[in-house]
Write a structure and sequence with these properties.
71% of the residues lie in helices and 0% in strands. It has helices at 7-18, 35-61, 67-94, 103-109, 121-148, 152-176. The structure holds fe (ii) ion. Fe (ii) ion binds at residues 59, 75. Residues 59, 75 line the site of fe (ii) ion.
Length: 178
């Protein structure tokens, strides 16, 4: 008695019997972590920390008619920054390296510099826009380095940060009319 009447199925069964069993080869785990990438991630981390603290400064000390808008905007920006800082530092740990972790190390390795507390709202927005440009440059540079060494996870991580921070730059630019 013939249970199988479908010609295609019969052909598949015959062909599959001829097939050699696939050889299972174990994928080798390639340890990530390249000195260059560690350095660029740590420089990015240092700049992000100084930027973060400046946002807290401005959140607390902004004055004037735009207080409510800017107080909230600076808080929204440092809330995103704190998540990104943690992701960058933990990415460095994934590589088995040590993230910069002291305020002194951040100040020593950051291109972004601190300001006082008595800036005008316009000056604060201008500082934040300039700092975003610096962060964006470091993000792009670090992404390029990660891409060079095939670190797709860091590329993916930084891609989103770049997209978000460039949008923030545009909105601050629209706010300040620059
Ligand atoms: Fe607050």
């Amino acid at each position: 008695m013939n249970f199988c009447c479908c010609p295609l199925l019969v052909k598949y069964i015959i062909n599959s019997k001829k097939m050699e069993p696939a050889k299972v080869t174990k994928k080798q785990f390639a340890k990530l972590g390249f000195d260059k990438e560690e350095t660029t991630l740590n420089t990015l981390l240092a700049n992000y920390h100084v930027y973060y603290q400046k946002l807290r400064n401005y959140h607390w000390n902004v004055k004037g008619a735009d207080f409510f808008d800017l107080h909230e905007k600076f808080e929204a920006l440092y809330t995103v920054a704190t998540v990104n800082i943690d992701d960058i530092a933990e990415r460095i740990r994934v590589f088995g390296h040590t993230p910069l972790s002291t305020m002194q190390a951040y100040l020593d390795n950051s291109e972004i510099t601190e300001t006082g507390t008595d800036l005008s709202p316009e000056e604060m927005v201008s500082e934040v826009m300039s700092d975003i440009e610096t962060i964006d440059s470091f993000l792009v540079e670090t992404l390029d380095t990660a891409a060079e060494v095939g670190d797709v996870a860091t590329v993916s991580l930084l891609n989103k940060m770049i997209k978000d921070i460039e949008k923030e730059h545009w909105m601050l630019s629209a706010f300040s009319g620059r």
